[in-house]
Amino acid sequence: MSGQWWFCLKHMRVEPEKGCPDKDRMGPYATEAEAAHALQTASDRNEAWQVQDEEWDE
Prior knowledge:
This protein is α+β, with helices and mostly antiparallel strands. The chain has two helices and three strands.
């Protein structure tokens, strides 16, 4: 299956393009694997942004 993939925050699983409403999902992602790691990706980005904010404040 090709197309876009989403991570559903309501059901905590990867979904194809046709799934839950977008308000309940993260994405789109190019691959199913990228969608499966959506929460970790978001966490990593938040941590990086926090470090940047701390450096900016110095």
